């Protein structure tokens, strides 16, 4: 029976192949059923992109257990500053100080993670870092670059001895002993509860001196807070009255941490950036495309080219925006350019803060993903779905929340689930100089489309 089954299968397969070989393909079949006024032809068009420069607001700079401290001054972007605020919690479930404790030393140890500069000569420059006490309690709502103000930390400096940091290793600094004496007075029940302790102790705020007014350069250092801590060494009386030495640790940034940053690039804001497009990472200035201007540009084109066909009758096959840049002759320029630039949209939280995220097109593997193209000196990002949805809408319904912001993107892969996530990059500081709208190689929108008559 088994042999018969195989023989039947082979016979059937041979018979089917003979039938298929006798079929003649007619590619015109059915074409006569399509009305002439519905015949779809594919067209292409290239537009000068109406792109300007704008400062993004309320960026989410709470990075998991990372604190960035430093300042960079540059010719075009002005002064960029970053300070780090971090909650403090006990490293153990319970701490017992013993009888008559006294502080021997209390130190803050911050472990360096990455260093960011825009001039390689600035990697090891000396910087003065200062440690302050927070006056507010950090929580899950304080995740933005402007969540704290100058009034939210005590301006008394806790770091002792004027330690100068050169960015080469971890930052270790002695803190005022009165901080340790204060810890001794906190009830044990409060020490044992992270929530109660954060409400009592608040946390630390770390900042850096600005570069001199007439000097360009600087450095941003990101510290790995998951490996950083406060160490307090102290003496106490044991049960026999003898003095003993002991040390305990407190964690920084385990519960909450946020980078408070600002950029001096606001004077660069303009509706159309003819000379150059300046793209500054994290909370700096970004290329910006008005959705209203984009909609009107396409509406005018359709009216001009198709004699009044409504914009919503355009069927977009592909839409990409290209941002060219020039090569300076020094390959090191790419060390400070963003590796990926993609079109993002802004959404508002109920508290009024802004959240920026890339368009859904970035999840499609076959579409242009915004990676830097060093060969063609260009960034290319796909906006096909976004643009199709935009042109379907009435112009009166379009708001600034529909605008596009060109931002660096970070990709995170979850090995457990196999899922890939895309976020606006608020971790790496970059400076990417792109061509302006008046340059020979200027930003463009390339459109492949059809018209439904």
Structure in words:
The protein has 453 residues and is mainly beta. Helices cover 15% and strands 41% of the residues. A hairpin with a 5-residue loop joins strand 15 and strand 16 (354-358).
How are the SSEs placed, and which strands pair?
Layout: H1 2-21, E1 43-48, E2 51-55, E3 66-74, E4 78-90, E5 99-116, E6 127-133, E7 164-165, E8 171-174, H2 177-185, H3 188-191, H4 194-201, E9 203-208, E10 217-237, E11 243-263, E12 276-280, E13 285-289, H5 291-306, E14 314-324, E15 341-348, E16 354-358, E17 369-373, E18 378-382, H6 384-392, E19 404-413, E20 420-424, E21 431-435, E22 444-451
Antiparallel strand pairs: 1-22, 2-13, 3-4, 3-10, 4-9, 4-11, 5-8, 5-10, 6-7, 6-9, 10-11, 12-21, 13-19, 14-18, 14-22, 15-16, 15-19, 17-18, 19-20
* Structural class by helix and strand composition: mainly beta
Calculate Rg over CA atoms.
30 Å
How many β-strand runs?
22
Tell me the domain tally.
Answer: 2
Q: Quickly count the helices.
A: 6
| Percentage of β-strand residues | 35-45%
Give the proportion of residues in helices. 10-25%
């Amino acid at each position: 029976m088994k042999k018969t089954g195989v023989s039947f299968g082979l016979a059937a397969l041979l018979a089917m192949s003979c039938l298929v070989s006798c079929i003649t393909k007619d590619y015109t079949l059915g074409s006569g059923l399509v009305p002439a006024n519905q015949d779809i032809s594919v067209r292409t068009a290239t537009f000068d992109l109406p792109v300007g420069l704008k400062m993004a607001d309320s960026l989410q700079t709470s990075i998991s257990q990372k604190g960035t401290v430093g300042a960079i001054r540059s010719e075009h972007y002005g002064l960029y500053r970053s300070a780090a605020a971090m909650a403090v919690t006990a490293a153990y479930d319970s701490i017992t100080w013993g009888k008559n404790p006294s502080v021997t030393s209390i130190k803050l140890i911050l472990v360096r993670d990455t260093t960011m500069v825009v001039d390689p000569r600035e990697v090891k420059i000396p910087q003065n870092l200062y440690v302050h006490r927070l006056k507010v309690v950090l929580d899950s709502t304080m995740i933005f670059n402007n969540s704290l103000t100058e009034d939210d930390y005590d301006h008394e400096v806790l770091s002792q001895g004027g330690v100068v940091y050169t960015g080469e290793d971890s930052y270790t600094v002695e803190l005022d002993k009165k901080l340790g004496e204060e810890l001794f007075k906190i009830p044990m029940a409060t020490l044992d509860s992270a929530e109660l302790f954060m409400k009592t102790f608040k946390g630390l705020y770390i900042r850096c001196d600005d570069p001199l007014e007439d000097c360009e350069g600087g450095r941003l250092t990101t510290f790995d807070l998951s490996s950083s801590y406060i160490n307090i060494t102290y003496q106490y009386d044991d049960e026999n009255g003898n003095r003993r030495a002991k040390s305990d640790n407190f964690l920084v940034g385990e519960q909450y941490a946020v980078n408070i940053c600002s950029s001096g690039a606001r004077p660069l804001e303009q509706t159309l950036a003819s000379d150059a497009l300046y793209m500054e990472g994290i909370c700096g200035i970004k290329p910006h495309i008005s959705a209203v201007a984009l909609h009107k540009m396409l509406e005018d084109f359709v009216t001009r080219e198709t004699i009044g066909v409504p914009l919503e009758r355009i069927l977009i096959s592909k839409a990409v925006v290209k941002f060219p840049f020039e090569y300076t002759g020094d390959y090191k320029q790419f060390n400070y350019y963003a590796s990926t630039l993609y079109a993002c949209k802004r959404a508002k939280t109920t508290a009024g803060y802004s959240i920026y995220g890339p368009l859904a097109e970035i999840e499609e593997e076959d579409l242009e993903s915004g990676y830097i193209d060093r060969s063609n000196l260009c960034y290319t990002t796909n906006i096909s779905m976004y643009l199709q949805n935009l042109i379907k809408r009435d112009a009166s319904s379009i708001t600034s929340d529909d605008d596009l912001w060109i931002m660096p993107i970070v990709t995170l892969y979850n090995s457990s689930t196999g899922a890939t996530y895309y976020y606006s990059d608020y971790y790496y500081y970059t400076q990417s100089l792109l061509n302006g709208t008046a340059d020979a190689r200027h930003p463009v929108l390339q459109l492949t489309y059809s018209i439904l008559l």
